[in-house]
Structures are given as structure tokens and as C-alpha cells.
Specification:
alpha+beta; 7-stranded antiparallel β-sheet; 23 helices; 32% helix; disordered C terminus
């Protein structure tokens, strides 16, 4: 007989097996919501010195939890995972660092009295929850730091060195500044906590700030005991972690939103450092080390006022597949690192196939023109966001180092794109946002008329590797060709499918760029703000955002922004979502796509780019045209005056029934089914036999033409069974036996 699989997760099981049993039981007994079950764990904890009794108690815990399913045990598994994360490796030092700063001597002694790391972590979770959560934030920040994946690292040019520690930071003033700049509502609190981070082997002494505030109101469905569906409303917690390193004049920040990252950094610089952002904005710098895949050699550039003896790479470190595996090659300044790599690692060595470069050190020998004193400069770049130049005390030395990196194509610095410039390229940015893929080629950007370098500086793009194939459409060659290096600077060599030479092309055409989708989305939202009477940005789906409301005829009309509506599947998914929000009233969906349905749920869809104002007007959008389009579509948004199907493309269209929300249809099968039902209803004989209804289709039932979630939402609402078995009809009145699903959430505007 097959053995039943245990529902207990690995982290809960490890807690039971490894922790002191009294602490393990206490951690597993925690309930953080009414939806969590009561485990009714054994209460009589045995004498800890009685090994047999302790082992029996552990087994009793396992047997008790085994009676629950995985869903019931999931919250306990997540808590156990968090506890174990601070009881292993660097999580231990993260917890100890925060405990020693936050707890008084008595509580700190109690913490250290626990027998091992796991027990100390459990004790902190049970008795000092806030300290435990702060240690988690610190631990996550350390992980980002050590892996080179901090979201953003800003550099601040201070006139004078600022002596700063956590005690000197006005946490309330900083919280008020951040709240104001993020335009948080009065009822949403914002807190800031400052902590000193001692120096480690890899990082200088720093200050850490933990910023917490409530996010936009959201909701989830809840399955009730009576089988009905309810809605739970909640405000998710948002958190940003900032680390400031005085010796490097560097601000590092982790947060989900790029706007929050920049806002928190700017606020910290103004309030804590007394830095004038308006005169000297914070900058981030990105370091692109991909040039070292083809060669580790550097040629000194010509920079006015300097004469260079040499510039050599003396250290290169790469990651092999994962961040934990690395290969480091280090030579003296007299060695040719390229020659050493070719000799000992092979001519086609691993540096060309590296997952990523994590460290490059460059030695430069130079002198100032008119000065015979030889000088040296060492530049170390770690990953894409860290460089030792900012910690150089000499500003001229810093300036020279950054100039060299820029000349070599390694450095690009953040430069905010001016508002007027963003307005000018707004249509192109919308088209970029509407793409299915988040990677884009240089040739596509050229077609749109966008400058990749400027978008990289503005944070909207990041450079990736170039394409390895190109499309060839010459007279003699038609198909894909391979991309090969060219001896001509700025060009690549294209080779046909059979090795034939098909000429050279600009290298910029085959360069690939990753779209920073989050920053691009927030940039578009910021440009749309002046149109709104009320703002309430809320991402409902990766392709749908509730932007706020616009006032039309003295009523607040919900406004949404949708992309990828030219994809029938995406449009149908968003239609289902918006029909679930029907109580918000008839709204406007601005579409990034030109091909789109006329309606989604009870909302009028209109192409955003069709309502741009002329360039000489102050507003970006023509409000009169938007109001007119809304009024024109209002009647159909309420179902129109008679049932009909309107095709808006070969594979898409909309069903209109008076008094009902429009239904988006995707695919010829769905369109034809409802067209036949509409014709039958108009003739006065609404029942259509399934054989006639599905004639010409591979499927034998209308249900098979829809995805399950869509079919569940339309059956007995738009389509229902006829009077006889095997017949279907269009439903023109609501069915009294049907309980309509509750909406997910009313529009928050």
C-alpha cells in the first residue's frame, strides 16, 4: 500500500526536529489571522533533560500537524522559513547586529542566553517582533548588496564631509518629507527607523534606514464557510531600505518602485545631509562590463591635460552560471592579462562565455601635462552599480577616473529626462510600453525615433548583449543570417545561412536593450496625472492600471490604462476582470494599442494616442475629444438598444445586450456562436440546437470555445440552456436562480 505523503513542509519539520521543543511549540502555535486553523498542539512540554520524552513530544507535534492539509500549514511554513533565514549563515550576524542596537542590556542578555542560533531567532520572533522584522530588512539589504543586485545606488557630491550617525537623523522630519513627496493620503502613516551598521570585511561603516508606509487599498477573494465568495479589503505594507556609506558618499536603496527609490534617496539627502537636490541632483551610475568578453585589453584615451603611460586590467572576476560560483584572474601590473588568460585558459576562454562580470580592477599610470611626476590610479568596478572612485578623497582623481570609464564605454550616468522632452516622445514611449517583449533592438528604437543612449541615461532602458542573428532580405539571400565581428569600428559582419557574405551593418542596429518596464510605466502615469480630477494609481494586472478619475458632467468617471489589447487573450482576461468591478460604473479605458475592442466590461475603450493635444497646448491631452468619445460610447457601455455583435477585428469583437455589461469576444468561434444566438433572438425563436450552433467548428459545445474562468462568468448571464435539452439561447433578462459574483472592489478614486 502506497504511503501517504506528509503535508508538513521542510521548514516546519526542521523547526520541530532542531529547535528546543518549548520554543518550537510556541512558534508553531502562533496564529496571525482568523483564517488560520488552530492546531491544538500538545501542551504538556516534557522535562528538557528527558531525551526520550522530548523525542516523543516532537513526534506528537508531527502527528498533530499531519492531520492538516498543505494549505492549512502554509502560514506556519512561511513563518518557519523566516525564522530559519535569520538562524543560518549571514542571517545570524544580521539578527545579532540589530539586537545589539535595539534591545537594552537585560533583553539582550535574555536573547544571548538561548542555546543556539535557531532558538535565538525563535525567541526574537516571539518576544521582540519589531526587532526581528528590522533584522529581516537588514538581512535582505545585505543580500542585495553582496550579490551586486541593489536596485539603485545613488551618489551624492557633498561640498563638505558630513559626520553622521543614526542618532543624528531626525526620523520624524524625514518621514514627513517622504510622505509629502510620495503624496500619501493623511490616513496612511509613514515611519522611518535609523540604525548604525558597523564596518565589515567587505563594507565600510554605514547607516541603514527602514522606511515603511501603507500601499494603495487592495482586495482578495475569500471563500466563506457557506460556499459563497466574499471580498477582503486590505492595505499592503510597502517598505524601502536605504544604506548610506559616508566614506563613499553613496546612497543604496531597495524598494519595489523606482519612484519610491528616488524619492526616499532625495528626501534623505535633503533632510539628513543638507544637500540641495535642485542644484545638484543625485545621480546613479551604471557600469557595463560586457566589453571585456571580447578583450581584456584597454587603450588609454586622449583626455586634455593628461598624458598616459598605460591602462591595464589587473584583475577580472566572473560568475559561472550562478552567483555562488566565481572565477578570478589576478596579475601584476607588468603582466598582459589577455596573454595570461589565453595561455592558461585557452584562446576561446571562459571570459567570453561568462554569466556576468562581478569585478574588474584597472591600473592606470599617468602624469599631468607640464608636470613630470608619475601618478597612478586604481579603479575597481564591482558588478553594475559599484565603483571605488566615489571614495577617492581627491575630486580631480575622481573626475579623471569617471572620464576614463566613460571614454571606454563602461560608464553611463543617470540624467533625469526633462518633462518637455518626455512629452515630445510620449507617443513612442506608449508604443514601447505596449510591446509583448521587454527586450528591444536598436533597429526598432531607430524606427520609433528614440535615442537609446538618452533613454539609458534616463533609466528607461538597460543595455543587453547584441542579437546573434539578423533578418536578410537581399535579392540572392532570404532568411536569417549570423552576426559576426567586423574589423570596421561601429559595424558588424552579416553572414548568410550558407556562409555567404551579405555585407556589413551598423552595430547599433543589432544591439539589444531591456525595457525598465516599471520605470516606464510610472513615467507614463506621471505624464497622465494632469488629466485627472482624482488620482488613485493601482496596478490591477500587469496590463491594467486604475489611474484615478476624470470629471465628466459633474460625475467622477473611473479611468484605467491598458496595454497589449491587440492580443485577444489579454483583452478577454482584462474584460473578465473589469466585469468583476462593474459596480464602479461606466469608466474609460485608455488603450496603448491601436487595435482594441470598443468596450471592456462596462467601460468605453479609446486609444490614448488619438486624444493627444497639439504640441503648442499646455495640456498633453485634448480633454474635449475624450469627453465626446465617452458620451458616444456610453449607450453601448450599458448594452445599447438591441442585442448585437460588433466585430472590431478578424478575431475580436463585442456582444451588446441592453442592460448588460458588454462582453468581449476573442476568436471566430466565440464571435460566430453569439452572432447565431443574436440572429435567433431577433427572429423570435431564441433556442438554437447545439448542432446548428456549433456547425463548422471542431468543438461540439459552446463551453469548449471559452476558457473555464470566462465560461463560468458568462453562463446563465449571457448564454443559457434553452427550453429543450440540447438547445442554447441568448439571455436577455437576468436569471432569477443565478447568484452574480460579488465585485472584487469598487473603484478607489
Amino acid at each position: 500500500m502506497a504511503r501517504k505523503a506528509s503535508p508538513i513542509g521542510p521548514h516546519v519539520l526542521a523547526l520541530i526536529e532542531d529547535a528546543r521543543v518549548d520554543l518550537a511549540r510556541a512558534a508553531l502555535a502562533v496564529r496571525e489571522g482568523d483564517n488560520e486553523p488552530e492546531f491544538k498542539l500538545p501542551e504538556d512540554v516534557p522535562d528538557l533533560a528527558d531525551e526520550e520524552a522530548v523525542e516523543a513530544f516532537r513526534q506528537a507535534l508531527v502527528e498533530t500537524l499531519s492531520d492538516f492539509d498543505r494549505d492549512d500549514l502554509r502560514p506556519a511554513e512561511q513563518r518557519s522559513r523566516r525564522i530559519r533565514a535569520l538562524a543560518e549563515k549571514k542571517g545570524v550576524t544580521s539578527l545579532i547586529t540589530i539586537v545589539e542596537q535595539q534591545l537594552d542590556e537585560t533583553r539582550s542578555q535574555e536573547f544571548h542566553r538561548q542555546p543556539d542560533e535557531l532558538c535565538r531567532s525563535i525567541w526574537a520572533y516571539l518576544h521582540e517582533r519589531e526587532t526581528f522584522e528590522d533584522a529581516e530588512s537588514f538581512h535582505f539589504a545585505r543580500q542585495f548588496r553582496d550579490h551586486g543586485k541593489l536596485y539603485d545606488a545613488f551618489e551624492v557630491e557633498l561640498e563638505n564631509q558630513v559626520a553622521l550617525d543614526a542618532a543624528a537623523i531626525d526620523e520624524k522630519a524625514l518621514a514627513a518629507k517622504i510622505k509629502g513627496m510620495l503624496e500619501l493620503k493623511p490616513e496612511i502613516s509613514c515611519t522611518v527607523k535609523a540604525l548604525d551598521l558597523p564596518a565589515t570585511d567587505t563594507h565600510p561603516a554605514s547607516i541603514m534606514l527602514i522606511v515603511r508606509h501603507g500601499g494603495p487599498l487592495s482586495s482578495v477573494y475569500d471563500h466563506r464557510q457557506d460556499g459563497r465568495r466574499g471580498t477582503i479589503y486590505y492595505r499592503p505594507p510597502n517598505e524601502a531600505t536605504l544604506i548610506y556609506t559616508p566614506s563613499m558618499r553613496q546612497i543604496e536603496v531597495c524598494a519595489d518602485s523606482p519612484v519610491v527609490r528616488q524619492t526616499v534617496s532625495d528626501s534623505f539627502a535633503e533632510v539628513a545631509l543638507g544637500h540641495d537636490i535642485s542644484q545638484k541632483p543625485l545621480t546613479w551610475k551604471r557600469y557595463n562590463l560586457s566589453r571585456f568578453r571580447s578583450s581584456l585589453l584597454l587603450q588609454p584615451p586622449e583626455i586634455e591635460g593628461y598624458a598616459f603611460e598605460f591602462a591595464r586590467v589587473i584583475e577580472a572576476e566572473i560568475r559561472l552560471g550562478t552567483w555562488r560560483r566565481k572565477l578570478q584572474l589576478k596579475v601584476t601590473v607588468d603582466d598582459d592579462i589577455q596573454e595570461v588568460a589565453d595561455r592558461y585558459l585557452g584562446a576561446r576562454n571562459i571570459f567570453r562565455r561568462a554569466e556576468a562580470f562581478s569585478r574588474i580592477t584597472i591600473a592606470v599610470a599617468y602624469n599631468l601635462i607640464g608636470d613630470d611626476k608619475q601618478r597612478t590610479l586604481n579603479i575597481t568596478i564591482a558588478g553594475t552599480k559599484s565603483c571605488n572612485l566615489q571614495s577617492k578623497p581627491d575630486p580631480e582623481e575622481r573626475s579623471l577616473g569617471f572620464a576614463l570609464l566613460k571614454e571606454w564605454g563602461i560608464l553611463s550616468a543617470f540624467r533625469q529626462i526633462a518633462h518637455d522632452d518626455l512629452r515630445a516622445i510620449f507617443p513612442q514611449l506608449v508604443q514601447l510600453h505596449d510591446r509583448i517583449e521587454d527586450e528591444v533592438s536598436g533597429s526598432y528604437l531607430l524606427e520609433l525615433g528614440l535615442d537609446p543612449k538618452r533613454l539609458i541615461e534616463g533609466g528607461l532602458l538597460e543595455r543587453r548583449d547584441r542579437q546573434d542573428v539578423v533578418l536578410i532580405e537581399d535579392d540572392d539571400v532570404d532568411g536569417e543570417g549570423a552576426v559576426k565581428p567586423s574589423a570596421t569600428e561601429g559595424m558588424i559582419h552579416a553572414v548568410g545561412p550558407f556562409g555567404e557574405d551579405v555585407g556589413k551593418r551598423p552595430a547599433s542596429d543589432v544591439e539589444m536593450f531591456a525595457v525598465n518596464a516599471q520605470w516606464l510605466h510610472e513615467t507614463l502615469m506621471r505624464l497622465m496625472k494632469p488629466l485627472l480630477s482624482k488620482r488613485a494609481a493601482q496596478i490591477l494586472d500587469p496590463d491594467l492600471t486604475l489611474v484615478g478619475a476624470i470629471q465628466i458632467d459633474e460625475a467622477d468617471v473611473p479611468v484605467y490604462f491598458a496595454r497589449r489589447l491587440n492580443d485577444p487573450k489579454a483583452a478577454q482576461r482584462l474584460d473578465l476582470m473589469l466585469r468583476a468591478r462593474g459596480t464602479a460604473g461606466v469608466g474609460i479605458v485608455f488603450a496603448a494599442s491601436e487595435e482594441m475592442p470598443s468596450h471592456l466590461g462596462p467601460n468605453v475603450v479609446m486609444p490614448l494616442l488619438s486624444h493627444l493635444a497639439s504640441a503648442d497646448e499646455e495640456m498633453l491631452f485634448a480633454r474635449d475629444g475624450i469627453e465626446l468619445a465617452y458620451r458616444d460610447g456610453l449607450s453601448l457601455a450599458r448594452g445599447g438598444v438591441s442585442p448585437r455583435v460588433v466585430r472590431t477585428g478578424k478575431q475580436s469583437g463585442t456582444l451588446f445586450i441592453p442592460g448588460r455589461e458588454p462582453l468581449h469576444l476573442a476568436g471566430n468561434d466565440q464571435l460566430t456562436i453569439f452572432e447565431r444566438l443574436v440572429v435567433a433572438a431577433a427572429k423570435g425563436s431564441p433556442d438554437v440546437q447545439v448542432k446548428a450552433l456549433m456547425e463548422g467548428f471542431e468543438s461540439r459545445s459552446p463551453q469548449q470555445a471559452f476558457r473555464k474562468e470566462t465560461w463560468d462568468s458568462i453562463r446563465d448571464v449571457y448564454i443559457g440552456k434553452g427550453a429543450k435539452k440540447g438547445y442554447w439561447r441568448l439571455l436577455l433578462t437576468a436569471q432569477p436562480t443565478e447568484t452574480v459574483a460579488e465585485p472584487a472592489e469598487e473603484a478607489t478614486v
